[in-house]
Amino acid sequence: MGQPKEAAVIILDCGRTMAAKLDDQDDTKTHFTLAKDAVIDQLKHKLLLNPKQQLAVVCMGTQETSNSMHDEVEGEGYHNVTTLRYSSNKTGLGDGSVRLVKEVMDQGCEDAESNLLDALFVACDLLSKGNTYLGKKYKKMIFLYTNGLCTFDPAGEEDGIAALLDKMKEMECPLYTIGIGFTGDTDITAGGGSGDGGGGGAAAASAGGTGADDDGHRAKVEGFLQDMANKTDGIVQPSTNVLDNLRLFMKKVKLQRTKYREILQIHPNMKIPVWSYIKCKREPLPTAKKKLKVPTEDGDQVRTDTQYQKVGVGDDEDDADIQLMDIAKGFRFGETTVAVAEHQIENITKYQCDRNMVCIGAVSASDIPSHYLMPPCECVVAEEHNKPAAEALAAVAQALEELRLYLICKYSYCKNAQPKLCILRPEAKRTKKCLYLNPIPYHEDMRTLDFPNLEAMKAPSEAQLNAVDTLIDSMKMTKHTGGEGEDDEEDEEGVKGSDELLRPRDTYNPTNQRFFQALLVRAFDPQAPIPELDEKINSYLRPDTELASAAQPAVDQINGAFTFQKVEAKAVGRKRYWREVLKQKDENVFHADLENLKVEGDDDGMGGQRVPKVEEEDDSEQQLPADKRTKHTISTGQTIKHFNDLLDKAKTDHEVSDVFEAMAFCIEQLIDDREGGGSRRAFEAIEEFRSKSIDKTKPQQFNDLLRKLYGRRSDLVAEIQHKGIALITFEECPGPGAVSLAEAQQHLSASETPAAASAGQQQQDNDDDELMGTIT
Prior knowledge:
- There is one protein chain.
- The chain is of the alpha+beta class.
- The chain has 4 domains: 5-248, von Willebrand factor, type A domain (Rossmann fold, 3-Layer(aba) Sandwich), CATH 3.40.50; 258-284 and 350-445, Ku70, Chain: A, Domain 2; 510-541, no CATH class; 617-775, Serine Threonine Protein Phosphatase 5, Tetratricopeptide repeat (Alpha Horseshoe), CATH 1.25.40.
- 36% of the residues lie in helices and 19% in strands.
- It contains 23 helices and 26 strands.
- Helix 21 (717-723) crosses helix 23 (754-775).
- It starts with a strand and ends with a helix.
């Protein structure tokens, strides 16, 4: 989405009347300093956020005169008006440069008369001459910063004012006046707004005193400017706190361009012409550009050339460099690279489809969880100036809203673009009816997250539930400010009769703001330190103090209803790499560790250089209780193989029992590790454990483990029952600890409930996902 192109002329009143003080206690704060600071901030924002623009500053009330209209009339008029611009093209306006900002910084308040009409004529003349080359692609604007006490005598200038107004209308050029000390209401029209990212329109500088009005002269000037603004779709803005926002907040302005202009097919016999606009999309930081540290006569731009060489061939050899035409692209298939011709890559990586938006069906809104709504969000409206399409889309949105349904559609915004499965959500307000489009995930986009069954946990008490309800109610960030009648207006987020503390439209990204502020400082002083982020922006990341104070009684209620216990973090073993092994001075230790070296592929899975790595030391032995420590430990990586190897090496009955105890502990570790296939491998280990317990006549160890899992991990009961893992009976193994067949059956079916069956099905789904993940 592109940025709008702007051609703006800023008029700054530098006359003697602008020397009026704002504060009797501080002689440095005047109407002029406030206006100049606002102009500097506006120029900085435009240079930083929108490089596609043409800028010029007209200073009225200067002792010297330097403007094109004064030269054209051979010095007979337009005195005390100076034009600041740095132009390298035929438009007559400047390209936007740091030098322009520095010129304004050096400008002072001068002892001369400032003529309002002369400044407006010069500004309009600059835009008129530039309009020949700029055309309609550029949005023309005039900004005026004044306190209204400048010279203004419309007598005898009626024809000139009429011509000025006609020319501004022809160029569609609004006049934005920032009045210091102005009175009256602000007339903000629908077409108002400067497109300036910093303050959202013409910024008003906040002033304290108003100074002498000279028998209504300021009111006369304000009335004239208000009339000009009304006729050009502009604004007259009195002094407000917008100057603070102009200094702090910066946002790139995007053009309102459509992403999709085609048909929304509800049914083969019902098609609506629609336009789609991007509503929400994450704004990235600008990318850094490469340049020469010391610019030359040709400039400071550099070009990047890529050189390809064979791996393992030195630079001094003849066949080191290879040409781009000798390189083929390919995709990994195991250890093989499948070569694909350059002209065939798009045929493989792109899905062949047409540009369309076709509805597949409708689902209940409750069937689409909120985490399925993926970015970006688009706003789908009827085609412009198409009344039948607007009526049809409004009817669809209203029907979906009343039935609480969403539409599922297949969406491809251009030909051969990746097709997306999307939902269309209705927005049926009194003043706006549209559909919001969000992509929803395919199977490959979803992640399988396995968590313990909440139904098996202890249910919270009534007092605990009430305490949490009170806490949530006390943390509401929306304050009710009015009624909820039909006449109450809704804000942009659809909240009626309320005021939200942290609205997205008023909340700026601290990362972006810090970057913009630092870049502005470095643009004028490359050696300046990075400034601290403004406290107002930094406050977004901290809880509201008023809200926290109001919620404190609820927090105290939570502390009384729940018992809190500090959980110590488990120590994690450290991996040792082969470089550490090579540093060992003891040769015996070196050779012993080499036996444990384990070769692993690179992390990105692309088959890069393999790096040997020493396997992490297993400290599971130290985690066993003191009375159950054994001399054997079984790895959770290859549990069954390690278990069988230890059983084959065990020569005495004591050693066999030792291995079985280690296996039981390893199974508990696998069950706790429910990510990465730990749950599936745990049940494979349990089945192997049961089989070997029968072979070695050790039913006691297995039955004790199974009862322990039933007692400690009740959420696993349904999974164990689903797989049919029962206690070892006398019929299977007549050893100590075996149970009767009736007891085994009773134990297996004791907790069979619908919830258990559901959990079993969930485990089956998880097993299927893990199996598919292993296969693919």
